[in-house]
Structures are given as C-alpha cells and as structure tokens.
Amino acid sequence: MQARPIAGEPSPPPARLEWGTYPGIGPGAELLGRALRGRRILELGCGDGRNAAHLAGRHHAQVTAIDLIDLQTQHALEQYGLLPGLTFLTCDAMRYLRQTSTVFDIVYSIFGAVGLVDPRLLLTAIALRLRPHGILAFSIPHPQRAGTAAASGAQPRHSPLHLPDGSRRLVARWELDAAGWRRALAQADMRITAATELGHPGRDRPTALVITARRN
Ligand SMILES: C[S@@+](CC[C@H](N)C(=O)[O-])C[C@H]1O[C@@H](n2cnc3c(N)ncnc32)[C@H](O)[C@@H]1O
C-alpha cells in the first residue's frame, strides 16, 4: 500500500493550504493550529498531495497522506514524493484507520473521505486514532450550494466525483449542515469548534463548508 518515491527533484510545496476549490479564499493551515512542526498529521483523500506537501514542506509536520486511487498517489509522488516528512499511501480511509496503530495530533480532509464515507463509521474511526484534544478539520461541498436542503445524517446523496484522468464516478455524499456535523461529531466523542462557509467570486451561495473539531 505504500507508494514509492520517484527519483528526481521534488516540486516546491505550495505556498498555501486551500480548503476550497478557489485558491486564496478563506483560512489556510492555521486552522490546524499555529505550531505544526513535528506534528503527526493524517490526510484522508489527499488527491494530488499538494496540501500534504504544504504541511510537510512549509511547516515541517510529519504527514501521512492517503488516497483510495492509485493514480492520485502516483501523481502526488511524482510531484512531492521526495519531500522529507511526507508519506503517500494508496488505501481506503476506513481500512487505514482500522489497521494503523499511529495516534495522530491532527486529521484532516479537503473534499476527501469525510463526506464520502458514512460519518457514523468514519468519525468514530478517526476519533480512535486522534490523541485527546487532537484536531479534526475537513471541508465538504456546501450542502446548500445549489439551493438544495442539507442531507439528513443517515441518507447520502449521489453525485459525480471528477477523477484526474477526466472520468467521472458516481459517489455517495453525506452533505450535512453545521448542525448535522455537530451531532455526528458529538456521537463520535468530538466537539465542533468552528464552522466556516467559503464563497466563490461570482456565486451568490457559499460553495464549501469547513468544519473544525476537537476530540474530547
Ligand atoms: C475531490 S478529490 C479531493 C482531493 C484533494 N483533497 C484536493 O483537495 O485536491 C477527493 C479525493 O478523495 C479520495 N477518496 C474518496 N473516498 C476515499 C476513501 N474512502 N478513502 C481514501 N480516499 C478517498 C478520492 O480518491 C479523491 O482523490
């Protein structure tokens, strides 16, 4: 499951961590805490690895970044595989959380596994691998971005996920609003600390919801 670095010069890590799809909008890595050097951080659904590279390369955190799709971790490795403190793994989030013995200071997901896996299962699995008072932060597409109501806790919606090869896959999404995430987090021994809506120039409605929480 561990993807191997490819020889060559790593790309420079991005200057900013982005929680939304539009760069430069909203908070950056400070949502994860001010002092990230040496922190054990897990990203669930890292895609091309740019945000994990930011945390390892610019903040000197110890980052494990996983993604279900091999194409994604291979692309991440080509870009950032030789950065110190950064490990890419091809693995399903639930599978990884159930088999690892590592306790993390911070877990995060940016349009990644949180929201794409049943929160009743995933949040509990995350809490078990977070240290007490450790941080969970995640962004999801805003549940009201298209004028629709938020989903209930149990029922996902189905919508397309765009893959790097240009294909699309229909996936289940749990698009709760902040109150829904508050309840789901509380059931998993975590408490919500902030909910931030991100906008997009030219759009009336918010496009992303960023939630931060702490383990009790
Ligand atoms: C929309 S992309 C976002 C990627 C990246 N976080 C970013 O902001 O560019 C969602 C990613 O989550 C990954 N993913 C979805 N479900 C997952 C799961 N259960 N375990 C691990 N990764 C998952 C997908 O393979 C995909 O690369």
TrEMBL record:
It holds the Pfam family Methyltransf_25. One of its GO terms (molecular function) is methyltransferase activity. Keywords: Methyltransferase, Transferase. The keyword Metal-binding does not apply. Residues 41-134 form the Methyltransferase domain. InterPro entries: Methyltransf_25 (IPR041698), SAM-dependent_MTases_sf (IPR029063). One of its GO terms (biological process) is methylation. Transmembrane segments: none annotated. This is Class I SAM-dependent methyltransferase.
